[in-house]
Specification:
The chain has two domains: 176 residues, Jelly Rolls, CATH 2.60.120.620; 42 residues, DNA Excision Repair, Uvrb, Chain A (Irregular), CATH 4.10.860. It is 34% helix and 31% strand. It has six helices and 17 strands. The strands form four sheets. Strands 1, 2, 4, 5, 6, 10, 14 and 17 form an eight-stranded antiparallel sheet that branches. Helix 1 packs antiparallel against helix 3 and helix 5 packs antiparallel against helix 6.
Length: 227
């Protein structure tokens, strides 16, 4: 399941985040790459343990936790601290699949990466190229979203970033361990939640049909959740 989540950050929040990270020092993006990714990767990255990454990462996580669509779609167990990358002219990132396990630098715990997320911090008009291309069973999907919007997709997907030919593409990227590991089951849970909210808007939250569907939703979550 691929899902676009608009307006995770407001324009004012995007402007503040960009002011903080643009003023910080950047390093070679291979600082956090695995062996295979390092062969395909050409970008810059904000040091993940620096004050700018920590400050802006906290803003992003707080916004995600308050976003109903993100919570419903991801069913997050753990959100890894957001990282930040920047692509200038001629930079890109070839085909790769994200690591299945990553270490949470805040806790040292090993985290299963069920979902990958990219939060765009540059508007599409600011650069040419730089599309995120995600391949799945339905083909290739080109993603280039407004600043403040996010794309969520299975971390097992083959994906790449096309070379930037003008301007600079700045984004945050991170991974989520979901309460529900299986992508098809997460998609079903999202569909059910959307249906519950739509039905509740029509007949009221206390209607027996809404209560019954809500009960089914939570029973499925009890069966499928890994905590």
């Amino acid at each position: 399941m691929m899902l676009q989540i608009p307006d995770v950050l407001s324009p004012d929040e995007v402007a503040h985040c960009r002011a903080v990270i643009d003023a910080a020092p950047w390093v070679d993006g291979n600082a956090t790459s695995g062996f295979q990714a390092a062969m395909a990767k050409n970008n810059q990255q904000l040091p993940q343990d620096g004050p700018a990454a920590r400050e802006v990462g906290a803003i992003i996580v707080q916004a995600l936790q308050a976003n109903p669509l993100f919570v419903s779609a991801a069913l997050p167990h753990t959100i890894l601290p957001p990282l930040f990358n920047r692509y200038g002219e001629g930079m890109g990132f070839g085909d790769h699949v994200d690591n299945s396990i990553r270490r949470n630098p805040a806790t040292g715990a090993q985290i299963r990466t069920d979902l990958s997320a990219t939060l765009f911090l540059s508007d599409p008009d600011d650069y040419d190229g730089g599309e995120l291309v995600v391949d799945d069973t339905y083909g290739s999907h080109l993603v280039k979203l407004p600043a403040g919007s996010l794309i969520l997709y299975p971390a097992s997907s083959l994906h790449h970033v096309t070379p930037v030919t003008r301007g600079t593409r700045t984004a945050s990227f991170f991974w989520i361990q979901s309460l529900v590991r299986d992508d098809a089951k997460r998609a079903l849970m999202l569909d059910m939640d959307v249906s519950i909210q739509r039905l509740a808007g029509q007949v009221g939250q206390a209607d027996p049909s809404v209560l019954a569907l809500t009960g089914t939703y939570h029973n499925l979550l009890r069966m499928w959740a890994e905590v």
